[in-house]
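Contributing new records

If you add data, match the layout below exactly. Sequence lines come first and carry their own label; structure lines follow with theirs. Keep one chain per record. Anything else will be rejected by the validation script.
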Amino acid sequence: MVDSVVKELDAASKTPTAPAVAKPAVVKASLPPVEANHHEAGVAHPLDGDGLAALMETTTARIGVGRAGTRPRTSDLLRFQADLAVTKDTLNRVVDPGLLAEFGLFAVRTMIEGGTEEYLRRPDLGRRLSAEAKATLAARCVKNPDIQLCVGDGLSARAIEANLSKIFPVIRDGCATAGLSLGTPFFIERCRVGVMNDIGDVLDPKVLILLIGERPGLGRAESMSAYMGYRPHAGLSDADRDVICNIFDGGGVNPLEAGAYALRLAQKMITAQASGIKLRLSEEHS
């Protein structure tokens, strides 16, 4: 397009076009795959190459990337920028409505009304259900179930999209097998973990399980957590909850295993009538 505009201007001014000057070839740096960035050492002449490779295999963290002088290598810098873009993208992403429909999840909202910026700046509002949400839950949900399963976008909608189809059936079917009643599942938009207290006040389940997207790391947007609490209500804190974190395929807790473990933990909570620190103390004294 630029060349055509230049030709039109030249023709209009009737000025002879200067001979084209050859431009040096531009070498484009290719973006390495994630696997190469995380599992191939970029350190030149490491003292213990096998040890470094073994260390890198134990984590998805950005280690052993090497450098060019005092700066990161071009490929590593490009990967860093790409991973940062993934993180920013997931903060503004919304969960696919088709996925929610697949599992029969209706949506309610917290007190966040100002979009992503308010959600990031006011976590306190994300811990409270809106008045409309409370009324909806009271009208549509089963009260006093053994297990109440909820899903929230949290800080990564991508985490829900990556894991829900695997972990949800495990918990749902596991409740039926274990003879535990399952409440009406639903989805909470712009929620924080503390919203469990408001849900507990409305529905009074024995155990509440909240599947929520974790804070995304660089290039890691699919990590989900399952927060759990026994009879949550206003005034409880993280000390009263348990969590299964880093749920994702390929380096985290397998979603299928996480679902099975969540169900076993819920049974422990019901038996001990406690969760969090109180559950730990009851196990120590049993």
